[in-house]
Amino acid sequence: MEVNELITAVNDAVWGYVLIFALVGCGLWFTWRTRFVQFRMVGEMLRLLADSAVDTVESQVREQGEGRRKHISSFQAFAVSVATRVGTGNLAGVASAIAIGGPGAVFWMWVIALVGSATAFVESTLAQLFKQKHKDSFIGGPAYYIQRGLRQRWMAVLFAVLITCQFGLSNNSIQANTICGAMQEAFGWSPAWVGAVLAAVALFIVFGGIQRIAQVSAVLVPVMALGYMVLAVVVVVMNIGLIPHVLKVIVLDAFGVEQVVGGGLGATIMIGVRRGLFSNEAGEGSAPNVAATASVSHPVKQGLIQALGVFTDTLLVCSCTAFIILISGLYQVPELNGIALTQSALQSEVGAAGPVFVAIAILLFAFSSIIGNYYYGEANIRFITPNPTVMTVYRICSAGVMVMFGALASFELVWSIVDFFMAFLTACNLVAIVLLGRYAFRLLDDYRRQKRQGIKEPVFHRRQLPELEDRLECWE
């Protein structure tokens, strides 16, 4: 059995029998315990994001005048996390899900996003609660709330190793693989040369630290997401009469008799959940690493903003790709998969400019993911060891070696490796947030209480959780 086949077999076993039920079950539990926070507090999420975006611009102007740099803002933390979400999963991942699992896989991507946003709220709120001070920014994430909240150092180190392998290394290979595939399809460029250029630019950025990553992401993410969604809306409007049919196809395929009888329903659900998680990362334990870096007055604020990021990714950007592909009808062509399917679908709708536009979009999408993914690994390596030599080696491997590996490896191999690490990483994080979730619930109750009292910007102090006061470094 080849390596790729062995990894695929392990992935199917883990995803088919354990993780899907755990993800959906945890999402439903958190949705119930937070009293449907992802639906009831959408207005507050949008307000917080808008206020933070304005504060980001004002603080940057002020800090440039003073010649210094403060903690990154809540909006910048949101931008970095969305940068890792809005990427290959939205273009190549959605296409792969439809090609393998059928149109019904899109429905299950929506389901995991709707229930998973509550999970995203809990994990990011916990990351803020247990964050630590680090030079001119904060640092935190699942490794930190596992060690401080559960007091299990071994489990925290295990998570740190898994997320470094998943995001800092293997995930970057997928981004590079997709960029190179798109460039070769659109322009005929050699993957080796494209990979070399990507690695050089990525190395320059990642050696600048979280501030440079945040600045780049805050510019790239809004531009690339809005540009892609505008094109998708144009395609949808041009084919508005087909939308009811597309929605019908998605729903019927998700529960269709043909899938149940043929045994294909399980595969449809599996691939939908798997690609949905890869895209929005809810419960995976990735976004909390950057959520912890934001400077906010209450942990719930960043939890709400990160929950909004799940909606942004799956319900907006992923749906745009799905509609384009399903409108084109090309998902039924066996030879098309991944980014090539998305490019061909756009070409059928807007002409020869379609593949070129997707190539440019995936370059922005995936490259922003590369630099965001790198930071997840950096934060967790710092948790394990402060040795600067280890960090330098990691930077070279993450932004250099793995980018080149992805440029030259096969589509199937890079996806199998990512699915392998993603499964075990998510399982580790879910155990932690289920055990610590009660603190996120209490923080949400406190936030809502202060809002009912007319306090526009609720504030949290660590003395409000006396049993944790000696384990919380911030929140004086």
Describe the structure.
By secondary structure, this protein is mainly alpha-helical. 80% of the residues lie in helices and 1% in strands.
Descriptive keywords:
476 residues; mainly alpha; two-stranded antiparallel sheet; 19 helices
What's this entry about, in short?
This protein is mainly α. It contains 19 helices and two strands.
From the alpha carbons, calculate the radius of gyration and give it in angstroms: 21 Å
The amount of helix comes to: over 70%
Instruction: Assign the structural class, choosing from mainly alpha, mainly beta, alpha/beta, alpha+beta, or little secondary structure.
Output: mainly alpha
Q: N-to-C SSE series? A: HHHHHHEEHHHHHHHHHHHHH
Distance between the termini: 56 Å
Task: Report on the biggest sheet.
Answer: 2 strands, antiparallel
Mean pLDDT: 80
Strand order of the largest sheet: 1-2
Number of strands: 2
Strand fraction: under 5%
Report low-confidence residues grouped into runs of 5 or more. 60-69
In DSSP terms (H or I, runs of 4 or more residues), the helix count works out at 19
- The dominant shape is globular
